[in-house]
Amino acid sequence: MGVQIAPSILSAxxxxxxxxxxxxxxxxxxxxxxxxxxxxxNLTLGLPVVESLLAATDLPIDCxxxxxxxxxWAPAYAEAGAGSVTFHVEAAHAPVRLARELRALGTRAxxxxxxxxxxxxxxxxxxxxDMLLVMTVEPGFGGQKFLDLCLPKVRRARExxxxxxxxxxxxxxxxxxxxxxxxxxxxxxxxxxAGSAVFGADDPDRAVAHLRALAEE
Length: 217
Ligand code: DX5
Ligand code: ZN
Prior knowledge:
217 residues; TIM Barrel; binds D-xylitol-5-phosphate; binds zinc ion
């Protein structure tokens, strides 16, 4: 698949989400951060807004669920038509069952790891997934500083994926910018979420193209 860029609308104007989607036509995905004020100390949006966005854009939607009990809530995002649904392993009760359920609903199943969550304990369930998200900030807010300490985990995740010959995308999210994206790509990431680096730019589409060029180098 090569490099994919997924702008996060967390840094867009929430009253103009359709225009935000339109402003990043060069993107591969639209990354939508669902937060419930429990799993993370912030509240964003939920299923009704995702449904409206699905109707408002042709870009596939990548839902990042930062919520408690994703076992209960995640399948509805797949049923609504999200192209990818990512749950946090720290919050999931039965990650294998949930991943299988998401795939059965026709969506790509993603699993996310917070900075302090190691990848090794999950090595045996990687082939149940279509994407692994290695967070590069503590989830909850846009505009945070990139955590370099997460890069060795990206590298180890890439080794596990290659070693097992899996077709698994490796996503990074948090503090990804023109300053940090090359380090992420070098460590083995291939799907890059960027919020403030895209929607904080004067020309979001140009920012997407610039990030892509840096990651492809
Ligand atoms: C943070 C979210 C990210 C956020 C990234 O918890 O998961 O998707 O939007 O924002 P930046 O790119 O500004 O760090
Ligand atoms: Zn996110």
